[in-house]
Amino acid sequence: MTTESTYITFQGIAPSDAITAKVEERIAKLEAMCPELHKCHVWVRAPNKKHKATQYLIDISAELPGQTLAVTRHPGDDNAHTDVYVAIRDAFNAMERKLRKWSDTHKGRPETHVQPLQGRIAMLNEFTGYGHIETSQACSAGFRSQCRPVEIGLFGSAL
């Protein structure tokens, strides 16, 4: 990705060389992990100038072949995003997770969902402990129970 395809926009905050360098460093990391990245636009915003503890908002838009991924990191209740560098870190960490997931689904390693096997006991012989299970995939399997049959009787009765 070239410099022309990287955009950093400051809103409500004066542009800073240190912040720009940090954002460009994190964009380079995104490029290294996902070479398909075409364009990246980052917005650094400080919406509330009235309060002393300004919560920074970082928005990232990443263009990939056939799709655009977006991350909007709004501050939570813990005041962690009063530091612009923490807000940048959190936003780029979220984008890295999205890019990893995108790469996995577009590079032959789709997310797998393992379905638990389901079946029903079709036959059970109480005396031998042998049984048969029919699965939902139209397969059948035999099994042998390790439990022995129990004699049923009344407690305390004289025989």
Q: Which features does this protein show?
A:
RHF/RaiA, ribonucleoprotein, Sigma 54 modulation protein / S30EA ribosomal protein, RHF-like, single chain, 159 residues, Double Stranded RNA Binding Domain, 2 helices, 2 domains
Topology:
Blueprint: E1 6-11, H1 17-33, E2 39-45, E3 57-64, E4 67-73, H2 84-106, E5 119-124, E6 130-135, E7 140-144
Parallel strand pairs: 1-2
Antiparallel strand pairs: 2-3, 3-4, 5-6, 6-7
Helix pairs in contact: 1-2
Write the element-wise H/E pattern from the N-terminal end onward: EHEEEHEEE
Beta-strand content = 25-35%
CATH C-level category of the largest domain: Alpha Beta
If you average the pLDDT, what whole number results?
A: 79
Please tell me how large the radius of gyration is. Answer: 30 Å
Strand order of the largest sheet: 1-2-3-4
Provide a count of the helices. 2
Instruction: Determine the N-to-C terminus distance.
Output: 90 Å
**Any idea what the CATH architecture of the largest domain is?**
2-Layer Sandwich
User: What coarse outline follows from CA principal-axis ratios?
Assistant: elongated
Q: Sheet with the most strands? A: 4 strands, mixed
Number of strands: 7
Q: Could you say which structural class the secondary elements and strand pairing correspond to?
A: alpha+beta
CATH topology of the largest domain: Double Stranded RNA Binding Domain
Helix content: 25-40%
**What would CATH call the homologous superfamily of the largest domain?**
Ribosome hibernation promotion factor-like
